[in-house]
Amino acid sequence: MRVVVVGGGPAGLAAADAAAQAGADVVLVDSEPRLGGQYHRGTEQHADPRVRHLPQSTVWATEGRRLHVRTGPADSPHRTGQVLDADAVVLATGAHDHVVPFPGWDLPGVYTAGAAQTLAKAQGVAVGERVVVSGTGPFLLPVATSLVKITRVVALLEANGLGGWARHPWAAAGKLGELAGYAPLLPRVRTRTAVVAAHGEDRVTAVTVARLNPDWSIREDTRRRIAVDAVCVGHGFTPRLDLAVSIGCHLVNGFVRVDATGATSVPGVYAAGEITGIGGAALAAAEGTVAGAAAARAPHPPLNALRAVRRGRAFAAALAAAHPLPSGRHTWLTPDTTLCRCEEVTVRDLDAALTRGAADGRTLKLTSRAGLGLCQGRVCGREVTALATARLGHPLPDAEAFHRRPFATPLRLGELADTPLLPEEDP
Amino acid sequence: MRITIDGEPHDVPPNRTLAAVLIAAGRQSWRTTRTNDRPRGVFCGIGVCFDCLLVVNGVPDVRACQRFPADGDVVRTQHGAELPE
Q1: Which terminus of chain A has a lower count of CB atoms within 10 Å, N or C?
Q2: Distance spanning both ends of chain A, measured CA to CA
Q3: Does the beta-carbon distance from A379 to B48 stay under 8 Å?
């Protein structure tokens, strides 16, 4: 049987290895030239030698367990198309940084924490000479750790308090070893503090930093300006759900719903890693092992990985509880603040659409244009949904509207025209 | 390997993305937006946001953070929405 794994990060690598060890014919499709995903950037990773790895390959559409793939340099019109039919699919598409919008976040020099990390770790390039790191969650620590080696970090800001972890001592204790690596930085973390605005004409030259109330509303008397040439922001992660949604997998609380074996609601389709809940690389790898073994119908369940999944999920739940994004963040916005970076839709534009009666995600997109640009709502979708929900006083009836992408990635018309409709005959 | 960026020759080490080449050369932006003509550079750095677009060998809308240059590539700033040359 053939198992196709989509995504070459910790979850996808583990799934591919487990499925190959169970005797399946495994294809691992990954958009990067090298395996490892966002987590292992800069350190060489290898799959089981029996796995057929398709690097620089992106799944742009699905028809059930038939996957449409293009392979070649990013955004080149000369990529080649192929169709893969799978007996089982493991989706391990991961997550990207989530960023809460604030005035000036669209200025050059404002980066996601992940961008700064990738440029530092994989490329050895510093995003600036005076850098502020701001947001929420433990990922800010490895980012700051990479940055202090190559540039000057003038402030390291966590918008939440750290009290949330006190309520989950066992979950935190499991990660203490990892945390020890960041010990030199811990005294520099300022809690309940955030970058709430970035300033500059054509690039960022300063930020406003303020103390926050527990709901993230600004304590007005605490605003102060700091000169910087780069800002790195990260407010947790957004799962990359487009392929799961297009295959028809049910979601729960914004993530793919899976059973104990990683099976989704669609027969033959499994999911592992951050698209099933944000929990870090160790949990993702354990979930990948479980899902890969199940997808390949391994005779014996991987008991160690199943135990690791249970432990990891307890940590993931504590993580989500300790680093919430409370609604006071909307007080950072002004009418001129950009929400959708691609289509340059402001808070004022969104409010106008709501005033004209848009009350569901689809109408909101079509009337405000938020989410209709090249990123297909990946960057703004969650925040537009959250702001509209807060303004309307009720959730949007089609909250997954911002994840529905029949084309999972933009494609040139010429590429669409030469798309093969059927798989090549296997030799 | 050697590439051209906005008419200037650049020697590029292997395994470096176009975005890293540009940032290491001191650039923070290399595209303008379609509506408000605002400057943009890298934001997400992992191929998600499509902010870091530029024109490579006459083809617009290439993500600088995802593209590894090839020897002789001609790279330039993108102005708003552009059609292929």
Answers
A1: C
A2: 15
A3: yes
